Structures are given as structure tokens and as C-alpha cells.
DNA sequence: CACCATAGACCGAACGTTCGGTCGGGCGCT
DNA sequence: AGCGCCCGACCGAACGTTCGGTCTATGGTG
């Protein structure tokens, strides 16, 4: 059987790029390294994509898209605040895992480029919406009163987002659902027996 | 009163450097930007430090030093595992805040340089020691049985480490001790009222 | 079926810019 | 005079990107 020439699409090349950006950091990753990882030359890359920052933009748009979408899901918008919050925590963990490379890149954005600054603005928007939900749950008396809702919101999303730093598909033992459930369990009920 | 010429020491210059490295990422930060932030020229910097990677090394050595030191404190080495673990979680959060710029840089290290690879090795060592303690607490029946100790360890330090992403001295409302206590409280008892 | 034109995917070389760092020196203080 | 701290000019290497091309596959035409 003849060995066919592997060709890239913008999407498949983006996938390779995002893996490299996560491995080395966007600024630490060069187009030369991407060419090497993809097995084509630097100039070939420009046949498929407009440029380095454009790949970053596409990736960050995808990550923010899925995260905002989850906030509009029915179980995130109807019911008691504490139930909605539990759903958001569990579901955000699942979405983070499903789109791990893209969400990881978003969480690591620093602000050195226009694209990153846009993404950071979007993240702040997300954080505000979740913080509002936490404040609601606290107001309804379902959160412990000795921790300020703002602090609680930060710890919650710190916990969720930290999954991106260690979760590896196929290598973390637990699946997305299991990790999502564990994150929600620890967040609301803690680790003590 | 005459305006005296501000001069740097290696340590005060390192402090400026670490702030910049955290703001833009180590790879995204240039020596030109450091010169600008410090108010001196690039060549002046080399009078005080050996080079860019050397500043990174000094910072990461400092961060790993304080984190390993806390694991050797009496309250972290004697007593029931669950009590030692509570102390470590609370104390690690405090230390992270006290040495925020240095620990933040450590947590963001990627592995692009020899120095970063060394630091990542040290972090893995730290993670192993804490994971051992979590396993001990689980074996003593003090942790919930439905979450694997390895997963519990990752979530624990995910929570602690995430503080570096939002805590800002003087701007987060709560002090190091309060945040440390909140982290430990949420980690072991959860957010639910 | 053979030939040709076209398009898609690719490449080597080069560009302008930025990078970390060095060199040779000046200034102010003791 | 000597030293510490500073600086302008410059360096070689690496960066992201562009330019002008080649190669291969495909479809149309005779």
C-alpha cells in the first residue's frame, strides 16, 4: 500500500500548535519548533494560518466559547443558586477536561498580545458571572458564613482551573465525569471523612 | 534635600525582575523591559547579575527553599497525618503568600531552560512528599474514602497553588493567615453551610 | 489515453526586528 | 587614584514572516 502524503488542515495544525504552546508557553514556543513538531517547514505553516498570534486567537476563542456556553445551560440558569453552582463547578471541570489544551492555554494567557488581553477580559467577565452566583448562594444561606463569597468564588475556580495543571487524558486514572464529581464534592463538602 | 541616586543590589534588582517575569512570563519578558522597569540600562543589569537565567535560578531556588523548609517544621512532621496535613495546607498557603512573587514564578515554570527543569524536579519531589502525607491520612481513616488519595493530593495543592493566581497583597481583603485558614477550611470541610 | 493547465501543499532563502549579552568607557564618591 | 555603578554602541543569534519558487494531484480537452 502506497504511503500517502500527510497534509494539514488549519484545524489539525492548530491542534499541534496548541499542544506546543502549552508545553513551552506561547512566548517560549517558536514557529521553528512548531514546524518541527508538525513535520513541515515554517513557510508551510503560513499556507494554512495567518500567523502565530492568529493561531492563539483561534484557540482562545474556542476556549472562551465553550466556557460561556456552559453558563447558559438550563441547569446553570434555573433553580436554587447552590444547585446551579454545584452544576457549574462540576460541569466546568468536565468542559475543561474535554477541551483541555484550549482551556489550559486560556488559563495561562498573560496579556503580552492583543489577543491575550481580549481573552483576559473575557475571563474576567466569566469570573464575575460565577462570583454573582456564589453571592446568591451565600445570600440564600447555603454557603458557610465564615468565608466571604468573593473569596469562596476565587477558591472555587482556583480548584476547578487547577485541574488543567495535572489532568492528562488516559493517564490520570479517573475520567472527566469522575474528576468533575470529585472537584464538586471536595469544593462543597471537603476532604474530611 | 538632595535627590540621591538610587542604586540597586542584586537582591533588589531580582525583586524587580521577578515581578516582571510574573507579569509577562519568563520568556515573554525581555532584558530591555527589565531595564525599563528598573530605570537603568541593560548593560547596568549585568553589573549586578550574571544573566537572565541566573535571576530565574535565584528566584526558583528561593521558592523551593521555603516550601521544602515548611515540610520540615515540627507541626508538619509530628502528630496524626490529618493534623500534619491540615497544618501543611494552611502553612503552605501562608508561605506562598509571604513569598508570592517567587512561588508564583516557580508554579509557572515550564521547562524551557535547564533551571526550569531543575525546579520542576524539585516540585515533583515536593508533590511526592505531600502525596505520601495524604495517603497516610487516608490510611488512618481521616479522609473521605470515595476520593482516591492521589486525586485528593492533586486537588489539595491545586487549591493552595491557585491562590498565586489571584492573591494581591493589600488588595484581596484578607491577610495571609485568613486566606490560609480559609483554604484549609474549604479543603477539609467544603463550602456548604 | 495522453497532455496540459491549474490549484493546493509544500519549501529554501531572505528579510527586518528583537533577543541576551559584551565591550570600552564615563562619572561620582571616598 | 581607585572603585562602584552606570551607559551607549555594538554583536551574533534567533525570532516571525514574506518571497519566489517546486512538486504533485486533479480535472478538462482532444
Characterization of the model:
The structure is a homodimer of 193-residue chains. The first copy, chain A, has helices spanning 10-24, 31-38, 42-48, 52-71, 74-77, 81-98, 100-107, 114-139, 149-162, 176-189. By secondary structure, the first copy, chain A, is mainly α. In chain A, 40% of the residues are buried. At the A-B interface, helix 9 and helix 10 of A face helix 9 and helix 10 of B. Chain B binds a DNA duplex (30 and 30 nucleotides) through residues 5, 7-8, 30-32, 40-48, 51-53.
| Spatial separation of the terminal alpha carbons of chain A | 59 Å
Number of helices of chain A: 10
Name the overall outline of chain A.
elongated
Q: What is the architecture of the largest domain in chain A at the second tier of CATH? A: Orthogonal Bundle
Strand fraction band of chain A?
Answer: under 5%
Give the CATH superfamily of the largest domain in chain A: Tetracycline Repressor, domain 2
**Biggest interchain interface, per-side counts:** A-B, 48 and 48 residues
Structural class by secondary-structure content of chain A: mainly alpha
Mean pLDDT of chain A: 93
Summed up, the domain count of chain A is 2
CATH fold descriptor of the largest domain in chain A: Tetracycline Repressor, domain 2
